[in-house]
Amino acid sequence: MQEMQEICLYRELVFRRLLFISLFLILCIVLSLLNLSIGPISIGIGEIFHTLITQGNDTAHVVIWDYRLPWTLMALLVGGALGLAGLEMQTILNNPLASSYTLGISAGAGFGAALAYILGIKVLPNVPMEFVVPINAFVFAFLTCMLIMLIGKIRGFTSETLVLGGIAISFMFQSLLALLEYYASEETLQAIVFWLFGSLTKASLFKAQVVFIVLAIVATLLMLKSWKITALRLGDEKAKSLGVNTERLRIEVLIYVSLLTSVAICFVGIIGFVGLVAPHMARMLIGEDQRFLIVGSILCGGVILSAGAITSKVIVPGAIFPIGIITSMLGVPFFMFLVIRGRKQIW
Amino acid sequence: MVELGVRDVSFGYGSEVVIKNVTLNAFPGKMVAIIGPNGSGKTTLLKLLANIIKPSTGKIMFDGVDIRRMDKDEITKIVSYSPQENVIPGILTVYEVVLLGRIPYLSWRISRDDLEITKNVLEELGLEIYARKYANQLSGGERQMILIAQALVREPKLLLLDEPVSNLDIRNQLEILDLIKRITRQKEITTITVLHDLNLAARYADKLVVLNRGSIYTCGEPEAVLTPDMLSSVYGVEAKINRNNRFVQIIPIRPLNRGVEALGQNF
Ligand SMILES: Nc1ncnc2c1ncn2[C@@H]1O[C@H](COP(=O)(O)OP(=O)(O)O)[C@@H](O)[C@H]1O
Ligand SMILES: [Mg+2]
Fold it and tell me: What ipTM did this prediction achieve?
C-alpha cells in the first residue's frame, strides 16, 4: 500500500504538469484558429480548414496562405522561442528578471537593425533586401552574446558577472543606437522606431520555418540536459555536489539561448515581456522540473504572443497596432498582479 | 565499498593556502569526523574529496585509483556530498529535491527503482509528511534533513556531510547521527562528516581528524584525540574532559588569552 502511495505522489506531480501542458496546448490551438479567422474579412473555422487542405486561388486562399498563416505561425513560434529563451536565461543567470533585455541582446539587435536602416550598412553582402535588417539584427544579437561569453571567460561564469556584463553591454548599445537615431532622417527614424516596437507584419512562411527549426533543435538539446538544468535551481553549490559542471552547463545553455533569441527577435523586432512573463506563468503552474517546464514555457510564450497578435488586429480597426506595445501593456499589469497577489512564491 | 586515500594534498584559493599537506585514510563501514575551529579548512577539504575543487598538489584516491583518472559520472555515482549551506532557491517540492539526488541515474522516464529508493529514504528520515511541500518554505533544520536525504538517496559508497546536524534539535541530532552511523555500518559506506559539536563527534565517530589552519593537527580514536592539550592549542579553550560517563564529555571552562599564547609561541 505504502509503495503504491509513493508512486502515486510522483504520478500526481506528473499528471498535474501534463494537465497544464495540455491546457496550454489547447489554448495555443484555439488562439491560432482565432488568429487565422480574425481580420478585415473574417473567415469561418470550416473555411479555414478547407483552405488549409486544398489548393485554390480565391480570396480566402490568398488571405490565409499569404497573410494570416505566416502571421499566426510567427506569433506562435516567436512567442515560444522567447518563452524558452527567457526561461533558460532566468535559470542560468539565477535571476527572475533576466530576459533578452537584461543581457543586452535586444539592444544589440536594435543597434544592428539601425545600422541597416540608418547607415545602410550590411553585415553580409549580397543579401536580398528583405533580409538585410534581420541578418544585421541577428549578427549583432549574437555578437552581444559572444561579448557576454567573453566577459564570462575572463571573470568566471557566475550569474553576477553575466548580469552585470549584460547591463553594461545593454547601455553601450543603447547609447550607440541613440547616436545613430540622432543623425537619422525623419523617415528612417520612423522605420527604426517601428522595428524597435516589434511587429509581425513582415512575417513569412520561410521565416516561420527558420524559427521553427531553431526552436525545435534548441528545445531538444535543452531537454537532454533537463535534469542538470533543474539541479541548477538548487543553487550552484548543490548542483556541483550533484556532479553538475555548472560553468560548462551555463556556457552551453547560453549558446543555445543566444541562437534562439537572436533568431526570434531578428525577424520581428523587440517584443517585450513575453520572455519575462511566460516562464514565470509556466513555472508557477508547472514547477521547476525542466522536463515539463521547457515545453510549458514554449507553449505559454506561444499563448501570450498569439493573444497579443489577435489584440493588435482588433484594437484599432483596419490597422495593425505594433504587437510589442501590446505585450508590454498587457504584460506589466499581469506581472504586477503576479508579484503582489500571487499566493505562491514566484521565484 | 570504497577506501579513501588522501596523499599529501594541498590547496589554496588564489595565493592563500587553505589546505596544507593533508594525508588521511578512511575505510568502509567507519565514520570519520573532521573537527577544527572556524576557517580551519574543513569545508574546503570535503570539497576536495567531492571532486568539486581540485588539489594543487597531492592526490586523492578511491580504492587506490587516482580520481583524476576516473570518469566524472562514475565519481558522482560513488560520492554524495551534502554542503554546509542549505538554502534552496528554486520552487521545488521536497520530493523533487530528494529525487534529484539520483541525478546520475535519471532520464526522461523515472524508473521504479528511483521512486522506490526515494520513498524508502524519505520514510527512514521521517520526511514523508513533507514530500509535497516546497523545500524553500521549510525551516533550516527541516531543509537540512531534506539535503541529507538527497545525499543518501544516491546510495553512495563515500558519504561526505558538512555539518549535517548543526541546525537540528537535540532529538533530530541523535536520530540523524544514529541513522548515518547505522547506514555506514550496514551498507559499508565510507563516511566523513564535519561536526562542530565535539561531544557528538566523540560519541559517534570511529575516528577523529583535527584540522588546524589547514593541516591535520592530530587524528585517531576520539578518546585519544580529545585532550585538554589539544583543546587549548587548537581551539584556544581551557576545558575539562569527563570520561566517567558512558560518553566522553567536554566541558569548556574559559577561552584562553590568545595574545599571551601567541607571545609564548614567539619567544
Ligand atoms: N571561495 C573562497 N575563496 C577564497 N577563500 C575561501 C573560499 N572559501 C573559503 N575560503 C577561505 O578558506 C579558509 C577555510 O575555509 P573553510 O574550508 O570554509 O573553513 P571551515 O569549513 O573549516 O570553517 C577560510 O580562511 C576562508 O576564508
Ligand atoms: Mg565549513
Answer: 0.87
